[in-house]
Design goal:
single chain, mainly alpha, Rossmann fold, Tyrosyl-Transfer RNA Synthetase, 3-stranded parallel beta sheet, two-stranded parallel sheet, 13 helices, elongated, binds tryptophan
């Protein structure tokens, strides 16, 4: 069975709809076909949060609840914590030896993080190297991520190819997989839904939260009266309807699109429909989350056991790496 490895930084405790369509949905969809590893990247979180370590534990539990609530099945998926997989950091060091400094200096994510005011540390430069090791330690074939992470997966590919060429075939060459809707707009109509942009609907939002957010959503600023023909294309209300409506919702969505573009239905009516669609999507997620919230020991155990399994895999790969490089002399 081919393997998936993907993950998230525990800089926050909940996922939003943009995370869902950008990457989480793929993980749920592929869990039957792939041996899936999901990594909580706490070491990576430290690169921007080294002075705020107190929230990490809470955020890690929040992400675990998020994964389990969307239907990732702990019988099929290995959940693991980066700081507990010690073979990975050693693999990362070896990969760093093969990495040109200029490549790390040019990574787009670095500039973004520095522009956001983060300290210019080696940890930030090293970020893609550790991420490549995360991916290569379990010998992952596929990496379902959001669009912003694609360059990092490509770096992991390049370094795997370089290693294999130098020392022999140890690593499969990983492929990125981006979600169907790589960038979901925010409720404010801005290009991207983001945790810190105040334009997100979270998987943990209550039905009332969802209603409040949707009813004040940005729609079509050129439409002043109901009878004005409205724009469907690029209108976040319709983008969300397409993304989260079920097959049963499709005829109604199509109908509203038509009426909207002719100026025959008001924003309020379409938004009410969207509230229903989103709450139908979120209800089973809320229900599963509530079940796991009642079993905190089980959630911790799932992460602990998964981390142990991932550590064994990483140690195995590390040994293969050393053998391939002929630095296994005294092992
Ligand atoms: N960098 C990813 C993010 O910020 C998290 C991550 C760390 C990751 N290691 C990974 C994702 C390995 C995929 C594979 O979202």
């Amino acid at each position: 069975m081919k393997r998936i490895l993907t993950g998230d930084r525990p800089t926050n405790e909940s996922f939003h709809l943009g995370n869902y369509v950008g990457s989480l949905a793929n993980r749920v969809k592929l869990q039957d076909e792939y041996d899936s590893y999901i990594l909580i990247a706490d070491l990576h979180a430290l690169t921007t949060h080294f002075d705020k370590t107190t929230d990490l534990e809470k955020n890690i539990r929040g992400l675990m609840l998020g994964y389990l609530s969307i239907g990732l099945d702990p019988e099929k998926v290995t959940f693991c914590l980066q700081s507990g997989i010690n073979g990975t950091t050693e693999i990362a060091y070896i990969l760093s030896i093969l990495t040109q400094r200029s490549v790390l200096e040019r990574q787009p994510a670095l500039k973004e993080k520095l522009d956001q005011g983060n300290q210019d540390t080696l940890g930030l430069y090293y970020y893609p190297v550790l991420m490549a090791a995360d991916i290569l330690a379990p010998k992952a074939n596929l990496v379902p991520v959001g669009k912003d992470q694609k360059a990092h997966v490509e770096f992991a590919r390049d370094i795997a190819i370089k290693f294999n060429n130098l020392y022999g075939n140890v690593f499969p060459i990983p492929e990125p997989l981006i979600g169907e809707i790589p960038t979901l707009p925010g409720t404010d109509g801005q290009g991207k839904m983001g945790k810190s942009l105040n334009n997100a609907i979270f998987l943990t939002d209550t039905p009332e939260d969802v209603e409040k957010k949707v009813m004040s959503m940005y729609t079509d600023p050129t439409r002043l009266k109901v009878t004005d023909p409205g724009h469907v294309e690029g209108n976040p209300v319709f983008i969300y309807l397409d993304a989260f409506g079920t097959d049963d919702d499709k005829p109604q969505t199509t109908n509203y699109k038509l009426l909207y573009s002719k100026g025959q239905v008001g924003d309020v009516e379409v938004k009410k429909f969207l509230v229903k669609v989103l709450n139908n999507f979120l209800d089973p997620i809320r229900k599963r989350r509530a079940e796991y919230e009642n079993k905190p020991e089980l959630v911790d155990k799932i992460l602990k056991e998964g981390t142990e399994k991932a550590r064994i895999e990483a140690q195995k790969t590390l040994l293969e790496v050393k053998k391939a490089m002929k630095i296994d002399y005294f092992i």
